[in-house]
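Sample intake sheet
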Amino acid sequence: MESIVDLTGSASRTLDLENAARLLGFEYLGGMPAREADELGALPFLRGPRGAHASNYLRQREGKETLALFDLAYGHGDGVHQETVATLESPALALPGFAVRPERAIERLIPLIGHGDIDFDGNPVFSRRYLLRGVDEAAVRALFTRERLAAFEGVEPCAVAGLGKRLIYFEPDRLMWPGALDVFIVRARRMFDLFRR
């Protein structure tokens, strides 16, 4: 398992990420560009939590696709959460708005307000482990084929959200050590590949 560190924004982490970016073929931009921030804010159910701060933004462009990584920190006091987030923008994506993440016990006990959890009778493991939401339930159900459901059942808990040509991936409460970014990118790309047309 990769190391989890709590150095978001520190000079040491920034320097390590600048070096990792160079080695992995990414450009290091520091802060997130405004366009990307606006588009990520439009993803369903993932509108930034209050006080969210994105930093250490890395970007790699290949043809018409852009893969980016950044640190996200939100919350305060003992409730601070830090995650490494990967995002892909690609013309090979055509996604209905959806968000899937590990389901917490409290959500099994208390009915959700608004868009409820989309479960699959034929995939009880997925339905028990993950909370899947989307505005257009029929389109989201069509998107989550047996192959995609099985992929979620076979990986460490992760969160994925998409809308149109943009998809994001993160592992809740995991801020990746810069030396483990290559492994994180492999996991993110594997999930992104599942959703290409």
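Comment: Residues 1-8, 106-110 have pLDDT under 50 and may be disordered. The two ends are 31 Å apart (CA to CA).
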